[in-house]
Amino acid sequence: MFTQTLLTGLAIGGIYALMAVGYSLVFSILNFSNFAYGSIIMLGAYIGYYAMVRMGMPIGLAIAVSIVGSGLLCWLNERLAYAPLRKRKASSLFFMISAMGTSIFLENLVYATIGARFYNFPELFAKSNLEFRGISIGVLDVFAMVFSFVAIYGLNLFLQKSRTGIAIRAASYDIEVCSLNGVNIAALIGLVFGLAGALAGISGMFLGMKYIVYPTMGWITNKAYIAAVIGGLGSLPGAVVGGVLLGVLETFVSAYVSSVVRDVFSFSLLVLLLMVMPTGLFGRFLEEKV
Amino acid sequence: MTFKYRTMIPLAVALSVALVGCKKEADVIKLGQAVALTGDNSIWGTPEKNALEMEIAKINEKGGVLGKKITLTAYDTRGDATEGVNVAKRLISDGVCAIIGPGQSGVSIAMSSVTEAAKVPFIATTATNPKVTVDDKTGQVRKYAFRTCFIDPFQGTVAAQFAAKDLKLKTAAVIYDVGSDYSSFLGKYFTAEFEKQGGKLVGNEAFRSGELDFRAILGKIKGSKPDILFIPTQQKEASLIIKQSADLGMKPVFMGGDGWASPDLIPLAGPAVEGAYFVNIASLEDPDIQSFVKDYKAKFGVDPVMPNPIMAIDALYAIIDAIQKTNGTDSAKIAAQLELTKDLPVLSGKLSIDPATHNPLNKPAVIQQVKDGKIVFKMKYVTQ
Prior knowledge:
Largest interface: A-B, 37 and 31 residues
Largest sheet of chain B: 7 strands, mixed
Number of helices of chain A: 11
CATH superfamily of the largest domain in chain B: Response regulator
Radius of gyration of chain B: 23 Å
Low-confidence stretches of chain A: 286-290
Helix content of chain B: 40-55%
Shape of chain A: globular
Oligomer: heterodimer
Mean pLDDT of chain B: 90
């Protein structure tokens, strides 16, 4: 049971990690928590569903469509809702309120247009699970973990090696100075949101395939947000570690204590951790912590 | 003065009508129906009324009851509790001797404040809340409130007997939603009956409403290798649990209650749901009701929406039986006789009323199964 629980925890943690990276990416630049992210993930799942089921695209193409679609939506979200605030140098509190508003708006838009019905992706793999000595894992989970790891690794490589990546990292330290050095901040922020949106597309696809596509599915990002805080908001390795850690811990609590107290446990952990390590495991900033 | 007289005349008329009641027109038997004919619940209410009218016409053709024709007065409750009270008042002042309906627990509970005082019985059709027939404040049975459907948790009893006696399975695990009365009571009734039948409960896990990932608790259950996994939830949770069990390589017999009865179940749960069973109140494919379904379809052009028409017709037969046995249309006597109903042949099978709760006793349920990607009728099940 121990190994089975650990494996399941890793699979759940992998999805948390992917979403937490998206949160942290935006936080690292703009120092606010983009609560609309969950809705972008939900829309990513709907885009993937339409591409794959309604238009009959193969899985690879559907993922690509979902990535591009969510990336655009996230970028648009910044342009319409946050850019005007940024120009007026509003405090991060207003960004957060705007984000919550966007989230509720998008959710209700889906209710009003598509409806509350549940949608599901078709079975992708002929055999749904791999089994070894009584321990099994879904084929889709393995696929999702590998894909997420590649995406996060690719993002990391881009941030470390490319010129644009260096600009993004510079902006995450000091956006003013970065701007003085000739970096087009507006374009840079747009790009960061686009990247976060692309990750949302991947998360949405996998969440939809693993579970069900419905308007409030984005609520699961609460967990990803906690994961990002545990890892240290703004830190990408922190987000990955926080996500995996939270997934594994939750699974163990569910399996060995009770699934009913699982959230009591994860939220207490969050409060406790913030008391002991206010910046999370890998965080740098203290003053912007939510 | 004149003003006072004017108000008193209609009042006196109304009073006399109310007092005389059923006996006023000696040549007919007046039955009332409280039914949702508009609003969201009309999908079930309209067929309920259609079916009753059709059945009453048939009975009248054959000479009626006690040599009298039956008339049906149906008023629209809109599925609303306040409107239900008004409907009950109107029916009682119209002089009906018994009321069939309503189909909603909330409307039924509200209505009983009027019917108890007027001593006119009503038989709810699909109101499944225990409070409909038993006042939860006093714990006393409501003397004039009855129903023909079984209460929700009874499905747990049916599932447990079917699993233990017919499928001959020995061990079971239950996964239930701790935030839902429906789910937790179904689970409790299942466990109690399954253990009574000699089965063993090897896992009992709760989750919170809104949960998506059940693999942690499934992993725990997997170790105890249950023969049956009983999942008393709606189709969303059930299908996720079934899908994720397959991911963990588990192959128990999945069972559930009528929360599963949605066409969504099969696409959402995928191939793993094949062979699963669930308990339902009624099914269109029930062989006992085929002639009714045929007549209904011939008359109205569509299939009757289950299970309301069946429950309404069952109620009609219970009332007719009480009228025949008391040889009259006195409402209070009918109510007293309804309580004694035992093994009465009705449309859904046999009806007995439990005098202590006014719920039907061992009411037949329907077991449905997912077979070749479709929900099919497996059998009619009568608990012992």
